[in-house]
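Lecture 7 notes: from sequence to structure.
We start with the chain below.
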Amino acid sequence: MEKELDNIIIEEKEEKIQVVDIVHEMRSSFLDYAMSTIVARALPDVRDGLKPVHRRILYAMHVFGFTYDSATKKCARIVGDVMGKYHPHGNISIYDSLVRMAQEWSFRYPLIHPQGNFGSIDGDGAAADRYTEAKLSKISSELLRDINKETVNYISNFDGSEVEPVILPCRFPNLLVNGSSGIAVGMSTNIPPHNLIEVVNALVALIKDPNISIEGLMSFISGPDFPTGGIIMGLSQVRKAYLTGRGILTLQAKYTIETSKTGKKRMVITQLPFPVKPSEVLEKIDELVKKKEIEGISEWRDETDKYIEGPYVKIVIEFKQDANEQVVVNNLFKRTQLQASFGINMLALDKNQPKVLNLKEILSKYLAHQIDIITRRTEFDLDKAKSRIHILEGLIIALNNIDEVIRIIKTSDTIEETLMKRFSLTEIQVKSILVMQLQKLAHLEVEKFREELSELRNFAKDCEEILNSKERKNKIIISDLLEIRDKYGDERRSQIILSEDLDIEEEDLIPREDVLITVSGEGYVKRMSVENYKTQNKGGQGLQSHKKQKEEDYIKDIRYTSTHDWLYFFSSIGKVYRLKAFRIPEISREAKGKPIVNLLNFSEGEKLKTIISIPEGKEKEGYLMFLTKRGLVKKTEMIDYENIRQNGIIALNLNEGDEVVSVVITGGSKDIIIGASNGKAIRFSEANVRPMKRIAAGVIGILIEPNQEAIGMAVIHTDGDEIVIVTDKGYGKRINVDEFKVQIRGGKGVKALNITSKNGKMVSFASVKGEEDLIVVTDKGMTIRTPLSQILTVKRDTIGSRVIRLKESDFAATITIVPKSEENVETSYEEDVTNDINVDYEFE
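Predicted structure tokens for the same chain:
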């Protein structure tokens, strides 16, 4: 009997055993755990900047009524309610999060108002939750404002007994303002806090100009602003973090050197790098002094508790009489946490996906969230208004027919149905009529109904206008942000000091290579390797090099440069900006590029006109020579453009209707050739153009005929130079500079091109040696690279030969000169291109 029973038990056990692949099971279980940690525990949401535990604490306190205008409540009660209803992960994690949100040295703008011992900046822990009390801080009300107006979605809690919000309305950008840190599986986030005033100002600027660049946003947000203050050394890493989402800041303590009453010098530290504790600094100093690694210190102590409250400290370090104070200070910064690093990693959840975001992306996603909040709140208010309007309309109908309504109520067996049928009322309206008190029959009460109805109809109309207007929504967001800024904003705590050592860009990480920079008429810019363009025989159709954003867009400028060279950008209002070439995004040959306004801080309506490349280290040598469409020239020393600000500087004053068409670098003693669209060109010595200041307008370089314009300018370096000319119909030729006699500037020039219906007007020309390659770009983005050796050197009065074969409606837009390719020339079409040489050169 026992043996049979054993067999039965074994069989039952065998039925419960499942055979699984342990590798698959481990992979599946680990991924589930990892995603749970990433999404539900460790990372903040980009919209409200909160992790689930913080969101649940704030929401629970809001639901329970522990708001800023109420009395504080025991933290044990708050923790218990949060754990029991929303966050079943232990009371320690909940209480620790609650404590941090209350510490003004942990949060830049604390979200919890504490009562009792909540620890200290020196790392002392808070008292047990049964001894402390808390309520929401005043600024927390802005995180939760309008949450009862269906502005956010809700989900069931862990056991389905309650609901909790997926996100908070968050009426200020909490992710940047308070920052966040957390460690998930395989990733971590460390977003620094910022000053509320600066972030709000940046948001307002972004709303007004969605195309503002990150550099433009940095004119409002100067850098992180830590609750403990301190000094941020250098801006290069701040800029890198805002551009890429990652960077490493160097933080230093703030201190002064004082002389005590006894005549001793001492170092008084008032702010520490975030989140360094005073005890850590003093322990390290004690260790270094005992080991005699630092000399010159006689005493050190922490006077924080005696004199300071809040996020600041007072650490006193007294020097010996014979000590060199600066040497001691330098050693302290080098060997202790008085100088520390803060690694920025702006990783946040975007639609439940962890992403590293740059500054503009964080702000843009927050604004998208606010648009959604405003929309949902307005829809809620509109629905509520319409419901009340519906009831009021029914009440007014009843009051206008009160005698008949009373008769129906007294005599009818089916009161609701009769009233609905008699007065075309809905069931909701009838029920409102039947519960109406007799005192509402008074004349004053009836007038109140009519006034309320009129107000609600106006309110509903306003709500509908808001829902149909993005501009109205933006104005509401701006108004709310400015109200919060003025109410809660304060001065910066962290100071930023420019440092030559720390502000050097990490250019050593950027490979040095030759690239092409292209700019379209609509202001799209991109960087490409020269190798993208294989050399072809002249006369081909070329390759696609630009995807148009708009039908009228085309490549208007192309420049050959190196990744480490400076690019100077000249705008329609006569300003100049600059960037290193590697700052221009590298994009495929066919793509349209990135808007230049995302890289440069252009003002509204400002357009890019032309660019030049300045070799690295040559920013102070020689002159810049400008040419405008109306033939004016101006020469200014390069050193005048040494300090180009983020918002640009004036390069030259432009007359109304005029614009920059060409800028070249000169040495001061060369000859200049200017070309015009009518085929004329003039050569003169640049000595005829005296150097002028940046604000000057210039002098006449070439007389321009009506309906014509200057199209380009070239510098003659040696007598063996040549000029290459390209026309809008794709024809080109080379001319020796000796063909152009030196004249006095201001003349009409001589014929450089015989213009016919076949070759078209002159659109581009450049100075060449004749051994380079020519790149021609059309308005449709077709590009051809061909050896200049295939283009014959001819006289001035010829029409040239076909360089690129164009479709009927296309035209050649711009050219650039690049070094000769070592590769074999590719033939781009099936015809014999050499036949064009004899056919297309014609003489007057």
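Points to note: The radius of gyration is 37 Å. Residues 99 and 118 are 6 Å apart (CA to CA).
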